[in-house]
Design brief:
alpha+beta; eight-stranded mixed sheet; five-stranded antiparallel sheet; 22 strands; about 30% helix
Length: about 475
């Protein structure tokens, strides 16, 4: 019997496995695919996700694998004003461009180093629940565990086996995502990576976004403005991509090879509860949305950072099961908000905008040039402005804590910091130099959010009564 089974070896599932294993939890990952697909896919790590990865020493190896490009701000609905995160007091103000399979490789290397077993070509076919745990049939195995975390994507098998509804809005179009190589290009093809607004072209009711990856390789995204979702399962052909390139970029743009390809849609859905008995849902298994602004991978990884330490604390006997209920309470609203802002972007990014939408784009683009409006959108899209509704009077509680040494959090445990010598020595606080903008003392959760804070006359009863307090040992 293992303690936790994670279904899915994508970024969300592997992050979840890393967080649990770091706390000494016995974790097994089951993945239906026989090998990792080397496709760029969700290739953007947003600033807040970079901060979280840095807390575990995972950011540096990802930076080493990142695509070479000039620092460039993010975007809202592909409008031509870069989002500026430098006003958010972060060491990582720019999105990091890296193929998804490289992210997965870094995470899997860390997970296996921590003792996680990853079983590939092992599809989940049945899930049985009891008061004490779950029994998962995967491949030719019947595995008992205390909990199952479903990180198995938008078409989650676990979600379907448990008959969990997936309400929301169906898609209105499909598009192709592929890694391609070109043997020749016209002058219309971008030569270097730039802001997303410079990489997309439209012609004859077709649209294509080409991102140069170097060596004649490109990340291709494109489709027809009139194509609807029922075509999503149709195989992507060489001829289809070649025709789109010809129409949008001219006869001189010739497709040499398609390394891999898939389809995606713009459906927006979210399950009502992220917990069903002893089964938890994270990532695309819990929520899907249009791919505007590079949100999906980041939302899933942040789900895992939220649930991982809580589940580990319960399994280690350091907290009651109520702590895991805060996962839904905190992350369901976060997911709903991303669905909200991606649907709003869909209006601006419609490949067949009405005349009114074209005028609205112009107005909104002007607004984005205003520093306060840009800062607001930048915080929203990067995740830097996200906060949780936590108990406590100090204004920092529930917000990310910036400016601290990330190595303090490598163990995955909460950290109590005394920045002004105001805490009794027997509380086990870590003394540190004052940081501009931070209070005198802070209890920081493993995921980098303030659980308690004080400037003077600290309320020690509130500190000791905080759920994170018991996890420091």
């Amino acid at each position: 019997m293992t303690e936790v089974i994670v279904a899915g070896a994508g970024p969300t599932g592997l992050t979840m496995a890393c967080e649990l294993a770091l706390a000494g939890v016995d974790v097994l990952v089951v993945e239906r695919l026989p090998y990792r697909i080397e496709q760029t896919k969700g290739g953007t790590i947003q600033p807040r996700t970079q901060e979280l990865l840095e807390l575990r020493g995972l950011l540096e190896p990802m930076q080493a694998r990142a695509l070479s490009r000039e620092p460039m701000g993010g975007h809202f609905a592909m409008l031509p004003v870069p989002l500026d995160c430098t006003a958010w007091d972060t060491a990582h103000p720019y999105p990091l461009a890296i193929p998804q399979w490289e992210i997965e490789e870094v995470l899997e290397e860390r997970a296996t180093a921590l003792g996680v077993k990853v079983l590939r070509e092992t599809a989940v076919t049945a899930v049985e629940q009891s008061d004490d745990g779950v029994v998962v049939t995967a491949g030719d195995r019947r595995i008992e565990a205390r909990y199952l975390v479903a990180c198995d994507g938008a078409h989650s098998t676990v979600r379907k086996l448990l008959n969990v509804p997936f309400p929301g809005r169906p898609g209105t179009y499909t598009a192709v995502l592929a890694d391609v190589r070109l043997s020749s290009v016209s002058d219309l093809v971008p030569k270097t990576p730039g802001h997303i607004s410079t990489l997309t072209r439209e012609a004859d009711d077709r649209w294509v976004m080409l991102v140069p990856l170097g060596g004649g390789r490109y990340r291709f995204t494109g489709g027809s403005a009139g194509e609807e979702e029922p075509a999503k399962d149709r195989p992507v052909t060489f001829e289809e991509i070649s025709e789109l390139l010809r129409i949008v970029y001219g006869e001189q743009t010739v497709l040499a090879a398609v390394d891999n390809a898939s389809r995606f849609g713009d459906a927006t859905r979210q399950i009502d509860s992220y917990r069903v008995g002893n089964v938890f849902f994270a990532g695309d298994a819990a929520h899907i949305h249009p791919p505007f602004g590079g949100q999906g991978l980041n939302l899933g990884v942040q789900d895992a950072f939220n649930l991982g330490w809580k589940m580990a604390a319960v399994l280690r006997g350091q907290a009651s099961t109520d702590l895991m209920d805060t996962y839904h309470a905190e992350r369901h609203p976060a997911g709903a908000w991303v669905l909200h802002i991606t649907r709003a972007q869909r209006v601006f990014a419609n490949p067949r905008p009405s005349a009114d939408v074209i005028e609205l784009r112009k107005v909104f683009t002007d607004l984005m040039s205003l520093p306060e409006a840009n800062r607001h959108l930048a915080g929203m899209m990067s995740g830097l402005s996200h906060s949780y509704d936590l108990p406590g009077d100090h204004p920092l509680v529930g917000h990310r804590v910036a400016g601290l040494d990330p190595s303090l959090f490598l163990s995955g445990r909460p950290v109590l910091l005394d920045l002004a010598g105001i805490l009794p020595h027997d509380l086990g606080a870590t003394s540190a130099q004052p940081v501009d903008g931070l209070p005198h003392a802070i209890l920081v959760r493993p995921d980098g959010y303030a659980a308690w804070a004080a400037d003077k006359d600290p309320d020690l009863d509130a500190l000791i009564g905080n759920p994170c307090w018991s996890l420091m040992a």
